[in-house]
Each structure stands twice: as C-alpha cells, then as structure tokens.
Amino acid sequence: MASEQELESLHIIELAVLCQRAADNPALDNDTRASAAALELEWVQLVQRETPPPPDFKTVQKIEQDKAELSTRMVKLLATI
Fold this sequence. Notes:
Order of helices and strands: HHHH
Helix content: over 70%
Radius of gyration: 13 Å
Structural class: mainly alpha
Number of domains: 1
C-alpha cells in the first residue's frame, strides 16, 4: 500500500475505493476488513447527504468537515495495510 503522505494526496473517492478493496481482500485480518468496510459505508452515507444538494451553506460546511475527518481516518487505516 502507499505511504501515508501519498494517501493524503488522494481524493476521498479514491480512498473509498481503496477501503472497499481492503474490505474485500481475504488476505487481510477480519478486524482490518471490517474497519475498511465501515469507513467505505460511512463515505456512502456522506454522499447520500449531498444528494440532492443541501439547502444551506451551514450544512455544506458540516458535510465538508465530515469528509475531511473521514479522509483522515481512511488514510490512517490504509497506511497500516
């Protein structure tokens, strides 16, 4: 897997794809796979909150903040694989 610095440069969609691949990888331990699946599911739920577009800027800001926090957690997990 890539280094933490390389992972930080990826878009959240790419991180979600990597989490999905990790969740589907039978070579990884069950805890890692479960964590990756949970992060990918959280990303799906964030995308659903954006569709249709939020009605106000405050909601958009909250979603962006949640995405940043999720990206950080994805990077931390993926860097350990």
